[in-house]
Amino acid sequence: MRGLRRAGLALLVLLPAVLAGGFLWLRGSLPQTVGTIVLDGIAAPVEIARDADGIVVIRAASDADGYFALGFAHAQDRLFQMEMMRRIGAGRLAEIVGEDAVEIDRRMRVLGLYRLAEANLALLAPEVQAASVAYSAGVNAFLERRRGALPLEFYILRHRPEPWRPADSLVWGRLMAWQLSGNWRDERLRDRLARRLDPARLESLWPALPDADAAARSGGLDPRPGAGAADVALRLLPVPPGASNNWVVAGRRTAGE
């Protein structure tokens, strides 16, 4: 009994110390919001400030330095979300979460969002390519100089993030475009009707939007060879959820109410 009492007393002493140590260790995953960080990759000093709500404000001498700082700040604040989103878009989620994600990966690879992102990268204007490279360098600077803990989710999954690539940023846009395209079933239905009805009858049944382009008015989604593969992928994918994005116009700026 004396030994048990001693063990219990030791546990009472050690447990708070272990918990305090774990708490301090995990605090290392939070962004550094004060002080100076010395990094390679920028031409002049950059200021990353956060207001009382945590909103980031970046002041830089050049666009390249600003995008570098933006990548660094995003990695500080949202590294796990960034990792999950790029893996979903690339069809590589099962590598870290297991076989339950294999079906999601298969669907995303059929859809080919990451292949599109890589192909689009070469077509971007030079200044946009430069911004993508600078942003990726900022993310990777955070990964390379990080001294504290990663976000807790990485340890739960026993995973360390790979370096960030410009295509990883572009696939975000592709993935968000899909998530915000909940009307693709309607578009596909109109496309099928267009193959059976003449333009006048289709217009009377389902008028095109006033500003629709010629392809939309004709009803065809994508007449190019290989478009059928995307159609198959669309049928495999679930209807994406809605989003929270919205906007309003102040009353003083509109004639109506």
Short description:
The protein is built from twelve helices and two strands; from the N terminus they run αββααααααααααα.
Could you describe the 3D structure shown?
This protein starts with a helix and ends in a 21-residue tail after the last helix. The relative contact order is 0.10. The protein contains twelve helices and two strands. With 257 residues, it is mainly alpha-helical.
SS elements, strand count: 2
Please tell me what the overall shape is.
extended
| Spatial sequence of strands, sheet with the most strands | 1-2
Radius of gyration: 25 Å
Q: State the order of secondary-structure elements, H for helix, E for strand.
A: HEEHHHHHHHHHHH
Task: Please work out how many helical segments DSSP would assign.
Answer: 12
Instruction: Determine the structural class based on helices, strands and strand pairing.
Output: mainly alpha
Distance between the termini: 79 Å
Topology diagram in text:
Elements (H helix, E strand, L loop, with lengths): L1 H26 L19 E4 L5 E4 L3 H28 L3 H4 L4 H10 L1 H9 L4 H20 L6 H6 L8 H14 L4 H11 L4 H7 L8 H5 L8 H10 L21
Antiparallel strand pairs: 1-2
Helix pairs in contact: 2-6, 2-8, 4-12, 5-8, 6-8
Key terms:
extended; 257 residues; 2 strands; mainly alpha; single chain; two-stranded antiparallel ribbon
